[in-house]
Every structure is written in structure tokens, then in C-alpha cells.
Amino acid sequence: MGKRGKAAARERREERRREVTLLRAVPYEPHQRWWDGLAPARAVAVVTGASRGIGYEISRQLAHHGLHVVLASRDAARGRDAAESILREQEAASAEWRQLDVADAASVEAFAAWTARTHGGIHVLINNAGVNFNRGADNSVEFAEQVIETNYFGTKRMIEAMLPLLKPSPYGGRIVNVSSRLGRANGRRNKIGDAILREQLLTDDCLSEELIDGMVTKFLEQVKQNSWSSIEWPQMYTDYSISKLAVNVYTRLMAKRLADRSEGQKIYINCFCPGWVKTAMTDWEGNISAEEGADTGVWLALLPQAQATIGKFYAERREISF
């Protein structure tokens, strides 16, 4: 893409940002606020990785809209401070914190048991917890195992544990996975080099846990053997990109499994890319704020039932390709 093309693309992104800013200022009409239909109890939303950045901002916005938010974070002190910050800022807010490490199966199991005892279930699950150790032009795979364990297996672990706790309602349960455009199977720079694997990942009828787990396992084995190649795998932030590719594909697999649920038992699962956000994960080098980055996730969680989708990938409130 030449300079003119890049400038045009940048202007289109800026125009869309301005549009979304205006949309965010439009209040939900009473008939759109499905979560108010659950009164006298508040809808319960769990947000992972909620002590800072996008996770905190998603929690803050959901609390602003009237949901009870459980801020789950690995660091208990930061989680407590984040919940207290929301409660101080918003007089009518309802929020609490709970320690959770999505990379630890025992921690996830304990969190699910606590949620069942305390709330009897939830209505919204936002899988935001994630790590990325690369910055700028770096592309180290030194921490590949930790990245994939947290970003992919952690997300998968939470869905498996919390799925039985999503409460039946006429409005449907909501699962939103925070992902990235870097996880596109057919991205310009991050394309999967194996054409057969790429086709399988993009074909719903081919999807399986074995396919997804096999892909990340193969990559990790190559990392251990120092035999991985950027020709076969994504070129940018390789371990992070593969983890998010796995999240995207797993989102579609779960959508396929959940699609035929009857009315009152429906669960809507989607993923979204928040963009390049100014957070600790990017060393504050992003080009949008956490408030902007959180918006599409909050929008997906709160979509009126008639507009809710399943198995889609979004950015800036628009569907994008996998």
C-alpha cells in the first residue's frame, strides 16, 4: 500500500472513530435495556483481567449502565483498588473484586464455585485477561508458552467453567472474547503459511478443539526445538498472534455448538479487536484510549436481544473478517 493508500485508510479509521464516539453518547432507550428486565436483581457481569486497562474500562462502563460487575484479576490488591475506584466514582454502581488466574485451572475452578455460591450464576462473561511480552519491532517467542496458556487456554478454561453458570433468560447469555486483528488466519502480514491449515481454520465444518489445540501445540513444540518459521506462522508478535487466532477460531467453534439452543436458553458468543490501545500492555504507545478500546466489547455485551449475533468478529462496532 502506497502513501496515498495508507493516508486514505488512516482517514477512514479516524472517521469511524468519530462515528463511534457519537454513537457512544447516545443513551440506551428503556426498551433496549434488557438487563433492567431482570429486576429486582441486577444482571451480573464477570470481567477477567479487570484491574487495569481495557478490562477495567469495560467494568467501569458496564457498572455505569447498571450491571453488577465482578472484577476478576490475578493481582488481588489491584483488583480491590479497581473495584473501589468504580464505587467511588459512581454512586449507584455495584461492583466487587475477586482473585482469579485464568492460567491456573484450580483458580478458575475456585472462582466458578464462588460465583455459583454468591450469585447463583451470571449473565455476561467478558474474557479480557491476556499477556503480550513483545513491544515495538520485537518478535521474541521466549514466553510463548505463557502467552498461549493465558490468552487461549485461559479463555477456553473460563468458558468451560462459566458456561453452566450463564443464567437462562429471554435475553440470552453473553460471552465476549477480547481478541485482535493480529489473529486473522488470512491477514496481510500474519497469514498462516500452511494453506491447508488456513483453509481448515476458516471453514466452520472443519472446526474442532483438536484442530485448534493441535495448531498451538505444534507451534510450541517448534519453539522448544527452535525450528519455528515466520513463513509458516504470523510474522508480527508471533506467539500473541497465534494465541488470538486460536481465540477467534474457538469463538466460532463455540458459536457452532451454541447456535441451536432454544429460546430462553440462548447464549451469544462473539469476539472483538479493541484496536491499538494506550495501556500498560502497549507501553502506552497505542493510538486510542482505553475508553475507546472498551466500547465494542461493552456494546456487544449490551446489544438488545433482537440484534444479538453469534460467532462474529468485530472492531469499532462493525463486523470484520476472520
From TrEMBL:
<protein>
    <recommendedName>
        <fullName>Short-chain dehydrogenase/reductase</fullName>
        <ecNumber>1.1.1.-</ecNumber>
    </recommendedName>
</protein>
<dbReference type="InterPro" id="IPR020904">
    <property type="entry name" value="Sc_DH/Rdtase_CS"/>
</dbReference>
<dbReference type="InterPro" id="IPR045313">
    <property type="entry name" value="CBR1-like"/>
</dbReference>
<keyword id="KW-0521">NADP</keyword>
<comment type="similarity">
    <text>Belongs to the short-chain dehydrogenases/reductases (SDR) family.</text>
</comment>
<dbReference type="GO" id="GO:0016616">
    <property type="term" value="F:oxidoreductase activity, acting on the CH-OH group of donors, NAD or NADP as acceptor"/>
</dbReference>
<keyword id="KW-0560">Oxidoreductase</keyword>
<dbReference type="InterPro" id="IPR036291">
    <property type="entry name" value="NAD(P)-bd_dom_sf"/>
</dbReference>
<dbReference type="Pfam" id="PF00106">
    <property type="entry name" value="adh_short"/>
</dbReference>
<dbReference type="InterPro" id="IPR002347">
    <property type="entry name" value="SDR_fam"/>
</dbReference>
